[in-house]
Amino acid sequence: MTRYDTIIIGAGPAGMMAAISSSFYGKSTLLLEKNRRLGKKLTGTGGGRCNVTNNGTLDDLMAGIPGNGRFLYSVFSQFDNHDIINFFQENGVKLKVEDHGRVFPTTDRSQTIIKCLEMKMLENGVDIRTGKEVVSVKKIDDLFHVNTPDETFTASQLIVTTGGKAYPSTGSTGFGHEIARHFKLAVTEIEAVESPLLTNFPHKKLQGISLDDVTLTFGKHRITHDLLFTHFGLSGPAALRLSSFVKGGETAFLDVLPTHSEQDLAEHLERNREKSVKNALRELMPERLADFFAEGYDCKVKQVHTSERENLLTKLKALPIHITGKMSLAKSFVTKGGVDLREINPKTLESKKVPGLHFAGEVLDINAHTGGFNITYCLATGWVAGSLHY
Ligand SMILES: Cc1cc2nc3c(=O)[nH]c(=O)nc-3n(C[C@H](O)[C@H](O)[C@H](O)COP(=O)(O)OP(=O)(O)OC[C@H]3O[C@@H](n4cnc5c(N)ncnc54)[C@H](O)[C@@H]3O)c2cc1C
């Protein structure tokens, strides 16, 4: 049985940062990860480029973390997105800011981020064990006993950073919720969010088209962001964000040209009245999308009857899209629900009932939009949980 000050279960962004902070504060630290490699899910973020944080203000962070973001005020006062940016820059990683405040390594490679975290852990003397699945945890007197199939490790502090239940193929299978239940802590209901949407749309015609900053509206929700048409429906940040508000059976409306008013579009058509509808629209949007909207108007703009022109304008500004469902947890990006925040001290992320037991990252009942917001709160909660105020 090997004894440490701190054991961390799970090497995602939360776990790796918790290991860095615990070791920085002089604690002997063990990080256990069941995958052979570190940060498997993190590798796939931002289209494989690692969307490591977002450079917005605190208000932007709160808007980007719709699931219990307010719990994080104390965490962000200790370690926030600017600390994340400084951390990587001080450790030799050059970063760049893209649209919507998304921050990436200039290499456009996730490995740059993972390697930096790994290097820092090794520099601080963290004992990193990959290919080690934790199968059970017990607390005997003041010590946590952490069992893998062939070894037991003990520590007075345990940090659970096993992630949620989304994309379980990356390793996040909800084991941390089981640890919480073992210690009689409440876990809130789990639901898939940031999920691609299934629609009854003519997928084949539009499949593969991606649009920048279009607006999806559903009831009072109005989301302007990038959108991707896929073979099953809609993906990309706009669709993922909308998924928090729909279950299937709703109709959303898509404005493909939100910076143009209906009046602007009417004038555009009038200016191009000698052209075919198709060609007039092709000046405003990708060809295949223009052809889709021009279907049924196989003529010049001037030949389209006024009432038909109005129908066309309405479709361009508010195309009804019937949502038939959303992808399951297995294909969703984020888990809503997790360890009940009423169980957790927001300053230290320690369990109020079980001294020494900490939770950080997506295992907690916190969910954020993609765009760097999840990774931000995971890294920040990891740092705070690892700071171990004892
Ligand atoms: C495809 C995809 C794209 C995404 N893109 C973005 C994005 O652009 N921006 C954004 O903000 N967020 C994005 N996210 C969400 C983000 O990646 C997660 O919120 C974040 O990785 C969660 O970090 P975590 O450290 O809490 O958990 P995870 O990254 O899930 O790590 C948990 C780790 O714990 C390990 N583990 C679990 N159980 C055990 C056990 N019993 N023993 C040992 N180890 C165990 C797992 O193997 C895993 O490595 C994306 C998610 C996906 C799936």
TrEMBL record:
Residues 5-387 form the RsdA/BaiN/AoA(So)-like Rossmann fold-like domain. The keyword Nucleotide-binding does not apply. This is NAD(P)/FAD-dependent oxidoreductase. The keyword Kinase does not apply. Residues 194-334 form the RsdA/BaiN/AoA(So)-like insert domain. Keywords: FAD, Flavoprotein, Membrane, Transmembrane, Transmembrane helix. InterPro entries: BaiN-like, BaiN-like_dom_sf, FAD/NAD-bd_sf, RsdA/BaiN/AoA(So)-like_dom, RsdA/BaiN/AoA(So)_Rossmann. The chain crosses the membrane at residues 6-26. Its cofactor is FAD. It comes from the Bacteria.
